[in-house]
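Troubleshooting: if your tokenizer reports a length mismatch, compare your output against this known-good record of 394 residues.
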Amino acid sequence: MSIHIRELLPKGVSIKEFKTGSELLLAYELEKYAKMMLPDEEKKLSFDGISVTSELLDTDEFRFVVETGLAITAGFAAEPLAKNLQAKFFKQNLHKPLTVDLKFEDSQVIFRADSDDDRNSAFYKNNRSVVYVSLVAYLMVMNYKKTFPKLVIEHMNYHHQEGEYFNISELQERKILNEVNFELKTKNKGVTQPSWERFVSVHKLMQGKSEPSVKYDYLKEKLNGDEVVFLRYRRTFKDSSIGIIQSCYPAIIRKFDTQNIWLEYYPIIETKLTQKKRIEQLITKIPELKEMFTYDDSTKNGAIKELLFIDTVGIGTCTHRELTFLLPLSLVGSGDSTYQYIRNVENPIPMNTINTIYAIFEDRGIEYNKKNFLKKHFGDEIPIFDQYKSGVDL
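Known-good structure output:
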């Protein structure tokens, strides 16, 4: 007998087609742990009804799962991986699960790489991105026929390796890990370094600088389609080959020509009520700060006007090693979550990037093409801000 892979996935999550190498590695790890941890009649996984996209057939991940005999690859001839590629994947001892220090708390499982160096040693090797997939699979099999707990990777005091979260980011993008069952906490809160690393890999950036005319044409194409709202990133290089993201703010391009871009960006990524509560919490801790804050600190939108020279700024896929670059929202996707206070709700509400931008723009009276923004990014969906008729009278 066998069980279908969907029975091991969190509630509401399904895979109809393997589109990324991370999904193939997850399937491999799920089958591995099923053999270790489940009763004899449920050790074998079924992948009935799931296909593999043709783009995956020429990848290291596909060659790896074919070589290891994963059932989904029946009919494909195994091509042994070169020795230098073997270490890229995670071949755990088949007689015991991943050694890892986990903290079980209510309906959450918390992992901190620096909590126990010995038990977490697998996460300090070069293939640590794949080891995270193994951790996810381990928890899925552990919670077979149970509610999958939220996995929180809490790396507030930890310096990650470039590319470390690549596979996790792919699983997020494919909705296998979502806001309900997964959260990544890093010391640079709100800065999307893992997403940037994946973006660089997928879109093959950093290969050469684009001419200003090419950037202009890219902008013209996007803005003719009313893609006015971008994310404005700032990075530094130091020891990173692709740059470390320092900041990421929503921005509106007000005008551009062949040489210049005029934009406004908004470094206050909070609703007025969120900012008001944060200021109040600060004053509670340090009463002396009360004299420093005024009414305007919560109500102003914080817009910063900026003139950028088109030859020194990266634009979408026309990005190389520019320190400042702009990515259209349609390229970035829903992105990371923020927590915003809204009226009539006691606790802060998690919002993805699109919902956060909409809430801030509406709450702070920022002028933009609202009708187009709703059509492009929400369709028939109602933004979270509108669901609660948010805002606050200050």
